[in-house]
Design brief:
The complex is a heterodimer of chains A (525) and B (347).
Chain A (H helix, E strand, L loop, with lengths): L2 E12 L2 E12 L3 E5 L6 H9 L9 E4 L2 E3 L8 H4 L1 E4 L11 H5 L1 H6 L7 H14 L15 H23 L6 E5 L7 H16 L3 E5 L3 H7 L2 E6 L2 E7 L8 H10 L10 H5 L6 E9 L6 E6 L3 E6 L8 H6 L6 E6 L2 E4 L5 H6 L2 E4 L3 H5 L6 H6 L7 E2 L2 E2 L1 H14 L16 H13 L5 E5 L7 H16 L3 E5 L3 H7 L2 E6 L2 E7 L5 H10 L10
Parallel strand pairs in A: 3-8, 3-9, 6-7, 7-8, 13-20, 13-21, 16-19, 19-20
Antiparallel strand pairs in A: 1-2, 1-4, 4-5, 9-10, 11-12, 11-14, 14-15, 17-18, 21-22
Chain B lengths: L25 H29 L7 H10 L1 H15 L7 H18 L4 H25 L4 H20 L4 E2 L3 H9 L1 E2 L2 E2 H19 L1 H11 L1 H6 L4 H27 L1 E2 L8 H11 L10 H20 L5 H30 L1
Antiparallel strand pairs in B: 1-4, 2-3
Helix pairs in contact in B: 1-13, 3-8, 3-11, 3-12, 3-13, 4-5, 4-6, 4-11, 5-6, 5-11, 7-11, 8-9, 12-13, 12-14, 13-14
The chains are: A alpha/beta (525), B mainly alpha (347).
Chain lengths: 525, 347
C-alpha cells in the first residue's frame, strides 16, 4: 500500500509549552485513520499544523499525495495539496439550500456568468444519490436533522477532493479530515456517518477522524494513532480492539498511568456534605438529555460530565429555564416546579443561580461597569422610595468584590478592564450574591488561567459547604475530579455512571466518560 | 422554543489572558473621558458665541433664544421618545408618522367634527398608544425586526393621515389646545418647552436612578445577559416601543397646538433629525449611552446651528446637510471611541 499522507517529526511550541513533540504518523490510500487523545494531547495542534493555521517547528516533513514539503503551510494552501477539512461546526450556511451549500465553490467561482440552476441541482442530486442520501437538494440546510447536515458537509468535502483530483490529474488520493464532526450526534447518527466514511475511502482517499467516542473509532477506523501530552504513544490496528476488553485497553493507553489526582481533594473530602436533600431533579428531558434524575444534598458539589454532546451540558440551562426543557420536575426544599415552564426570572426568585459557559455572550456586558454587571439580579434590593440608592449599591458590590478577591476590587471599572479570570470571579460573585439555594455552573473556568481556576473552584466549594447545593457541569475531567463530591456521567443522553467520594479521580472520570454505555463499573439503576 | 444559550464544552483555548490592575494611563483616559463628556456642550457654546458675534442683532436676541427653545420642543419630545426603544435595543421608524397622524386626528375631530378638544386629545394619544402596541407586538411577540415592523407601521400611519385629511392641511384647532401649548410663557419661553423639559427630567430619573433604567440598559446592551439575570426583556422592549409611540403622539399634540393646524406631512421630516440628535447626544454627558441630557443638548445644538446659518442667509438645504452630517459624525465618533476602548484593553 502507498500512503497519501505522511507526517514526520511534527513539533509545536507555544512559548515554553510544548504542545506537540516530534509526532509522526501516516495515512494509507483507502484508510480511515483515527487520531485519539484527551483534551490537550496535541491532536488539535497537529490538525492545525496541517491546515496551515499553526506553523510547526522547523524539521518537520510532510508528504502529501506525493508532494514533499518541509516548510510550514500557508493558510488555505491545503486545498491545492488535496486536503479537505470538516470541523465540528460543519461550515454550512443554514438558510441556503443543499445545492447552494454543496456547489458553493463552483457557484462562487463563476463570476458574472449565469448560474445554470437546473444543472447545479442535477449535479447535487447525483452526488446525494451516489451516497444514498435521500433528501431533496432544494431543501434548506436549516430544515435538516443534525445527522443529515453532517452528511452534507462530508459530501461537499468529498466533492472538493474530486475536483482537486480532476485538476491535479490524480487517479486516487486526497485526504479528508473530520474533526469531531459527530460529537453532537446520537449512536444511529454516528453509525450513519461511519458508513459514509467507509464509502469515501473506497475510491482511494484517506480519511483522518478525530473523536472522543472510542466505540465509534474502533468501528470505523483501520488504524488508531494515540497522542498523550503532545507525544505520540502508539499507532495500532483498530481490529485488535474490536472485543469487549478492547475499549478498556484503549482507555488505559489514552490516560496512561498518572498519579492519582484525587489526592488534591483530601482536605475537602474530610468535611463531607450534609444528608438533607435540597434539590431533587426528576425525569428532566431536553434536546439531548433524556430522563435525567438526581438528588443534590445540602453542601454538596455534584458534577455532571461526559463526552461533548452527550447531553450533560444542557442540564444547568434546562433547570434555569435558559433553555426550554421538554419535561421534568425540580423539587427545591419540598416545593416542586415544572422545569418545562421555568424562566430565568422565576428560577432566580426561587433561589437558583446560573453561571453560564460563555462569559462574553451570556455572562457579562463587557463595556458596562463591574458594579452594574454584578448587581443586576439584586438591583431591587437597592431601591428605596422609588430610587436606586447608588451609595448602598456601590458599597455592597465593593464588599462582594473584596470577599471573592476580584482584582482590582473597583466597582466602577468597565468589566472588560479585568482579566478573564477576574471577570469570571465577578460572575460567580454575582450569583453567590443572590444567596442561592441551588447554584448551577456551566464550564465555569473556560478560558480562565490556572490560578483563577483554582480560586473559583475554592469559592464554589466553600459556598457549597456553607449550605447550598451546587450542580457543576464541566467537560474538564481534572477539574471535575478536583471539585466534586459526587460525579454523574452522562452518555448518549442518559446517566451511565455515578462515582462517589474517594473513587473520584481524573482517570476514573475520564474512563467512565469514554466507556459510555456501562461495562464493568457500577451502573446506576 | 429552544433558546440559543451556549452550553460550553471544550473549545479552542483562548489565549486572551490579561492581567487586571489599575492602568498607568488611567489619568489620561479620565481626561479623555472628561473631554468627551463635555465636548458637545462646549461646541454648542462656541457655536452660540460665533453666531452672536456675526449676527449680534438677530441671533443674539432674547427673542431668538426664546423662540428657538419653544419651537424645538416638538423635536425634543419626539427625540426623547425615540431614545427609549434605542436604549432597549430596538428602532422605531414610525415616530414621525405617528406625530402627523395624532396631530391630524386632533385637528379633524376638533375642527371638522367639533368634538370637544379634550376628547380629541385623548384620541390623539390613544393613536400613539395603539401604534406603539402594534409595533411592540410585531417586534417582541412575533420577533420581526423592529426596523421593518416600525417602517411598515409608520407607512400605514402616514397613509391613514392622508386618508382622514384628504391630503389637506386642516386648520381651526381650538384655542384651548393652542393656549395649553404656547399660550403661557415662563421666563419668556413658551410652556411647551417645559413639557419637553419635564419628560427629559423624568427619563433622566428613570435611566439613572431606578432599577428599571438599569434593566433597560442591560436589555439593550446584552439581551442574553439580561435575560439570564432574570430581567423580563420582552416586557421591557414592549414597554419601550409603547412609550415611543405615546411620546410621538404627544409631540403631535404640541405640533397641532403650536401651529393651530395639522399638516399631513408634518412629522416625517423630523425622523432623521431625531435620530441625529439621539446619536449625537449619546456622545455627550454619559458618553457611550443614549441619555436624556445629551439628547437635550444635541437637539438644541443642531437647531442653533441651523438657525444661525439661516440667519446668515444660507438657504434651506443646510438643514439636510447639518442633520445628515451630524448623524454620520456622531456614529463615527461612537465607533472610534469604542475602538479606542478595545485597544486600551488589549495591552
Amino acid at each position: 500500500m502507498r500512503h497519501v499522507l505522511s507526517v514526520e517529526h511534527a513539533s509545536k511550541h507555544f512559548g515554553g509549552v510544548i504542545a506537540l513533540d516530534d509526532v509522526s504518523f501516516d495515512v494509507q490510500a483507502g484508510e480511515v485513520h483515527a487520531l485519539l487523545g484527551q483534551n490537550g494531547s496535541g491532536k488539535s495542534t497537529l490538525i492545525k499544523c496541517l491546515s496551515g493555521y499553526h506553523s510547526p517547528e522547523p524539521g518537520w516533513r510532510l508528504t502529501i499525495n506525493g508532494t514533499k514539503i518541509e516548510r510550514p503551510l500557508h493558510p488555505g494552501e491545503f486545498r491545492q495539496l488535496g486536503m479537505s477539512f470538516v470541523h465540528q461546526d460543519l461550515g454550512l450556511v443554514p438558510s441556503l439550500s443543499i445545492t447552494e451549500n454543496l456547489r458553493a465553490g463552483v457557484i462562487v467561482a463563476g463570476g458574472l456568468s449565469r448560474i445554470r440552476w437546473r444543472e447545479q441541482y442535477r449535479i447535487a442530486k447525483a452526488l446525494l444519490d451516489e451516497f444514498e442520501i435521500d433528501i431533496d437538494p432544494r431543501d434548506a440546510v436549516e430544515t435538516l436533522r443534525p445527522v443529515d447536515r453532517a452528511l452534507i458537509a462530508l459530501v461537499r468535502a468529498v466533492d472538493e477532493l474530486r475536483r482537486w483530483k480532476g485538476s491535479a490529474g490524480a487517479a486516487e488520493g486526497g485526504v479528508l479530515f473530520l474533526d469531531e464532526v459527530t460529537a453532537v450526534l446520537d449512536r444511529a447518527g454516528k453509525n450513519r456517518v461511519g458508513a459514509l466514511v467507509r464509502r469515501i475511502v473506497a475510491d482511494g482517499a484517506g480519511v483522518v477522524v478525530v473523536s472522543h467516542d472510542l466505540k465509534e473509532m474502533v468501528d470505523v477506523a483501520n488504524r488508531i494513532t494515540m497522542l498523550r501530552d503532545g507525544s505520540l504513544i502508539a499507532t495500532v490496528d483498530a481490529a485488535e480492539y474490536e472485543n469487549p476488553s478492547g475499549i478498556e485497553s484503549l482507555i488505559e493507553l489514552m490516560t496512561g498511568n498518572r498519579r492519582d489526582n484525587g489526592a488534591i481533594n483530601v482536605e475537602r473530602r474530610a468535611t463531607p456534605p450534609g444528608d438533607r436533600v435540597v434539590a431533587a431533579i426528576s425525569d428532566l428531558t431536553g434536546s439531548l438529555a433524556r430522563k435525567f434524575s438526581a438528588e443534590l444534598h445540602e453542601g454538596e458539589v455534584l458534577a455532571v460530565t461526559g463526552l461533548v454532546g452527550a447531553g450533560w451540558e444542557e442540564i444547568p440551562a434546562l433547570l434555569f429555564g435558559a433553555r426550554r426543557a421538554e419535561a421534568g420536575t425540580l423539587t427545591l426544599d419540598g416545593e416542586t416546579f415544572d422545569v418545562a415552564r421555568m424562566s430565568p426570572g422565576n428560577a432566580i426568585s426561587h433561589g437558583i443561580g446560573l453561571v453560564p459557559a460563555n462569559r462574553q455572550e451570556d455572562g457579562v456586558v463587557s463595556d458596562l461597569s463591574v458594579r452594574a454587571n454584578v448587581s443586576l439580579p439584586v438591583l431591587s434590593t437597592f431601591m428605596a422610595k422609588g430610587r436606586l440608592v447608588a451609595r448602598e449599591e456601590r458599597a455592597r458590590i465593593r464588599a462582594v468584590l473584596d470577599g471573592y478577591r476580584v482584582v482590582p476590587p473597583d466597582p466602577e471599572l468597565e468589566i472588560q478592564a479585568l482579566s478573564g479570570g477576574n471577570q469570571q470571579k465577578a460572575v460567580v460573585a454575582k450569583w453567590l450574591n443572590i444567596k442561592p439555594r441551588l447554584l448551577l455552573l456551566q464550564d465555569p473556568t473556560q478560558g480562565v488561567d490556572v490560578s483563577a481556576r483554582e480560586r473559583i473552584q475554592d469559592i464554589v466549594w466553600r459556598a457549597a459547604r456553607a449550605g447550598m447545593a451546587v450542580l457543576y457541569a464541566s467537560a474538564n475531567y481534572e477539574e471535575v475530579a478536583a471539585v466534586a463530591d459526587r460525579v454523574i456521567v452522562v452518555s448518549d443522553g442518559v446517566i451511565t455512571t455515578e462515582i462517589v467520594g474517594a473513587d473520584i479521580t481524573e482517570d476514573a472520570v475520564t474512563a467512565a466518560c469514554l466507556r459510555g454505555a456501562p461495562s464493568g463499573l457500577e451502573e446506576v439503576a | 422554543m429552544t433558546s440559543d444559550i451556549d452550553l460550553g464544552g471544550p473549545r479552542k483555548p483562548t489565549t486572551r489572558t490579561r492581567e487586571g490592575g489599575a492602568r498607568s494611563h488611567t489619568k489620561s483616559r479620565n481626561r479623555a473621558n472628561f473631554i468627551q463628556r463635555w465636548a458637545l456642550l462646549g461646541v454648542w457654546v462656541v457655536l452660540i458665541i460665533v453666531f452672536s458675534v456675526i449676527e449680534p442683532n438677530t441671533f443674539l436676541s432674547m427673542q431668538n433664544f426664546q423662540s428657538l427653545l419653544g419651537s424645538q420642543a416638538i423635536l425634543l419630545l419626539l427625540t426623547l421618545g425615540l431614545m427609549v426603544p434605542l436604549t432597549t435595543g430596538d428602532f422605531d421608524l414610525s415616530i414621525g408618522s405617528v406625530l402627523s397622524l395624532s396631530a391630524m386626528v386632533v385637528a379633524v375631530l376638533n375642527a371638522q367634527h367639533h368634538w370637544p378638544v379634550g376628547l380629541a386629545v385623548l384620541v390623539g394619544i390613544a393613536i400613539g398608544l395603539v401604534v406603539g402596541l402594534v409595533n411592540a407586538t410585531l417586534t417582541v411577540a412575533l420577533r420581526i425586526d423592529s426596523l421593518i415592523a416600525t417602517l411598515g407601521m409608520g407607512t400605514v400611519a402616514a397613509g391613514i393621515t392622508l386618508w382622514v385629511s384628504d391630503s389637506q392641511t386642516i386648520s381651526g384647532v381650538s384655542d384651548a389646545l393652542i393656549n395649553a401649548v404656547v399660550g403661557f410663557r415662563l421666563f419668556g419661553i413658551p410652556i411647551e418647552f417645559y413639557y419637553g423639559l419635564i419628560v427629559c427630567v423624568a427619563l433622566w430619573y428613570v435611566f439613572d436612578h431606578t432599577s428599571l433604567g438599569r434593566r433597560m440598559l442591560f436589555t439593550g446592551r446584552g439581551r442574553k445577559v439580561a435575560r439570564l439575570s432574570g430581567v423580563n426583556v420582552s416586557r421591557i422592549r414592549f414597554g419601550a416601543l409603547v412609550t415611543s409611540g405615546v411620546l410621538a403622539s404627544v409631540s403631535g399634540l404640541l405640533y397641532a397646538g403650536t401651529s393651530g393646524a395639522a399638516n399631513p406631512g408634518a412629522g416625517e421630516p423630523l425622523l432623521l433629525p431625531a435620530f441625529a440628535a439621539v446619536f449625537l447626544g449619546s456622545t455627550a454627558i454619559s458618553s457611550g449611552r443614549f441619555n436624556p441630557w445629551g439628547t437635550f443638548i444635541a437637539v438644541y445644538f443642531l437647531s442653533s446651528g441651523i438657525t444661525g446659518l439661516q440667519l446668515l442667509g444660507v438657504s434651506s438645504f443646510v438643514q439636510n446637510l447639518f442633520y445628515g452630517g451630524a448623524l454620520i459624525i456622531a456614529v463615527v465618533f461612537a465607533q472610534l471611541a469604542r475602538r479606542r476602548h478595545a485597544r486600551n484593553d488589549e495591552d
